[in-house]
Amino acid sequence: MGLAFVPIGLAFGALVTQSGIDWWWAPLSAALIYAGSFEFLLIGMVAAAVPLASIAVTAFMVNVRHVFYALSYPLHRVQGRLGKAYGTFALSDEAYALTSGEKARSWPGPRIIGLQLLLHLYWVGGATAGALLGSLIPEGVTGLDFALTALFTVLAVEAVLDLRGDLPTPLLALLSALIARLLFPGELLLAAFALFTLGLLARHLVTHRRPGRV
Amino acid sequence: MSDPGYAIAAVVVTAAVTWALRALPFAALAPLRASGTVQYLSTRMPAGVMLILVVYCLRDLPLTEPRALAPVIALAVTVGLHLWRRNALLSILGGTTVHVILASTVFAT
C-alpha cells in the first residue's frame, strides 16, 4: 500500500507544475500537509486563488474523517512527546489503515513511527520527483489527474466492502453527491458532506427509535 | 504563476486544520468512544466520504460528448482491477494508464 504513494506523488508533483504553480510548492505541501487527497484538491484551489477561509472549510470537511482515527490508532504505545506529536501529525489514511489493523496489534511504538516516517518519505519523494520531472512530460499527454480519481475509487471500494452489505450508506452518499451536484454545483463538496451527515443522523435516529432495537 | 505568499499561506492553513483534526480528538477520546452516535458515524462515514470525493472528481464530466468515455472506462478498469486483485498500486496504475492513453489519443481534444 505504501509504495502506491510513489506514482500518486509523481502525478501530484507533475500536476502542480502543469497548473502553473512553482515546483517547490509540491514538496512543501507534501511535507507539511501530508494529506494526499486534499493536496490534489488544493492544487486547483491555489491555481484559482480561492479565499483562505474556503480552503480551511473544505480542508475541514475533507479531512474530518481523521477525527475517527483517534478511536483505534494505538497512540498509547508511542513513547515521548515528540513521538506522539509526529504520530498524530502523520496519521494519514494509509498510516491509519496499517497501524490500526489486525497485524499491527503487537507492534511497538518505534515500529509504528518508523512505518509512518517511511510513508511520509515516499509521499514527499514522489511529489518532489514529479514536480521536477513534470516538465519532461511531452505536450499532448494528458489525463494524469485521473490518479486522484483512481485513489478515491480504490479507497471507496475498500470502504464499501468493509460495510459488509450495508447498501443504504453508499446509496445515501451517492444521492447526496448527485443532489449537491444539481442544486449547489459551486459548493458540491460542502453540500454533499452536509446532506450525507444529516442523512446518516436521521437514519440513526429512526433505526434507534424502532421498537425492539437499541 | 500564483503569488508565493498566498500559496504558502494555503499550505499552512490546510496543515493546521488537518493536524488539529488528527491530534485533538485524542484529548476527547473517552467521551468519543462512549458515544453511540459517533460510533455509528465512524463506521459509515469513510465509505460515503470516499464516494462523494469520486463524484467530486468527475463533476465536470461532459455526459453528452464522446470524450466522457475516457474517465468512465478508466473508472470501470480501476474498480474491476481492484475487485479482482485487491492491490491498490495495480488498480491505481492500471486505471490512470488507461485514462492517460485514452485522453491523449482517441479522445484528445
From TrEMBL, chain B:
Keywords: Membrane, Transmembrane, Transmembrane helix. The keyword Membrane applies. InterPro entries: Brnchd-chn_aa_trnsp_AzlD. The chain crosses the membrane at residues 6-25, 37-56, 68-84, 89-108. This is Branched-chain amino acid transport. It comes from Streptomyces formicae.
